[in-house]
Amino acid sequence: MAASGPLRGVEAYVFDVFGTVVDWYGSASEALADFAGPGLKDDWGSFVKEWRDGYKEYTARVAKGGQGSTNADTMHREILDSMLQSSRWKHLAPLWDDIKREEMVSFWHKLHGWPDSSRGLHRMKEKAIIGTLSNGNVRLLVDMAKFADLPWDVVFSGELLGSYKPNPQVYLRAIQHLSVSPDRCAMVAAHIYDLRAAASHGMKTVYVRRPTEDLGLQEEVKCKEEGGEVDVVVNSLEELAALL
């Protein structure tokens, strides 16, 4: 490939999606507020953050071999049901029956990309293989790709690969399916834990700074040339595309 510097020789780029490519917080908060309607006021931003925190806890548990589904839709529904039994949100439970809760789960299929995401990915696709390496399930990722114009060549998901990141098999099986050596595959993410796991298997690493992710950690992440631990740090996917 045409990339130079730390990315020289990389043939495939696999992406974390939630937070790295799409704005989960803004998109889901807006969808929930519209769903609730003007007559129902609450702190929808806090609701979405708690739902997302539940996602992080759930995927981490399964990645370590614990109980749980590898289908993100099932996971999101389980977390939602649990939240609506809590003292903080139980007042909403009678308002949202099974049909409405399933509609809420579908919010996660329609998340808007960051302003640079679609353009950056289209440019990268001209020069390399691009795909997801996400804890989302296949249908969710496909729906999101169509909604946000994300032109993936391949969709790898926790559901397909048998666990969630940072379980080693997620990274190793993706590399295997791409028929590349680890150093010719780059993990792109806005989460340092994800990149540390990828690097432990020999993958190249690209850190993307995003306003909703790794709060309190972003400024500490540096590229190896500056004494840090990742290969490249960028502020957008268009900046990354320009390096290829």
Total number of helical segments?
10
Overall 3D shape: globular
According to DSSP, the number of beta strands is 6
Please list the strands of the largest sheet in the order they lie side by side.
Answer: 3-2-1-4-5-6
> What is the arithmetic mean of pLDDT?
96
N-to-C series of helices and strands: EHHHHHEHEHHEHEEH
Q: Rg, please? A: 18 Å
What are the low-pLDDT stretches, counting only 5+ consecutive residues below 50? none
Notable characteristics:
single chain; 244 residues; alpha/beta; 6-stranded parallel β-sheet; 10 helices; 11% strand
Q: Can I get a quick summary?
A:
With 244 residues, the chain is an alpha/beta fold. It contains 10 helices and 6 strands. Strand 2, helix 6 and strand 3 form a beta-alpha-beta unit.
Chain-wise SSE layout:
Elements: E1 12-15, H1 24-36, H2 44-63, H3 72-83, H4 98-105, H5 117-125, E2 129-134, H6 138-148, E3 154-157, H7 158-161, H8 168-178, E4 185-189, H9 192-199, E5 204-208, E6 232-234, H10 237-241
Parallel strand pairs: 1-2, 1-4, 2-3, 4-5, 5-6
Question: Please, could you describe this protein's structure?
Answer:
- By secondary structure, the protein is an alpha/beta fold.
- 41% of the residues lie in helices and 11% in strands.
- The chain contains ten helices and six strands.
- The chain has helices at residues 24-36, 44-63, 72-83, 98-105, 117-125, 138-148, 158-161, 168-178, 192-199, 237-241; strands at 12-15, 129-134, 154-157, 185-189, 204-208, 232-234.
- It has a six-stranded parallel sheet with strand order 3-2-1-4-5-6, sandwiched between helices.
- Helix 2 packs across helix 3.
- The longest helix has 20 residues, at 44-63.
- The relative contact order is 0.18.
- The model has no long low-confidence stretch (mean pLDDT 96).
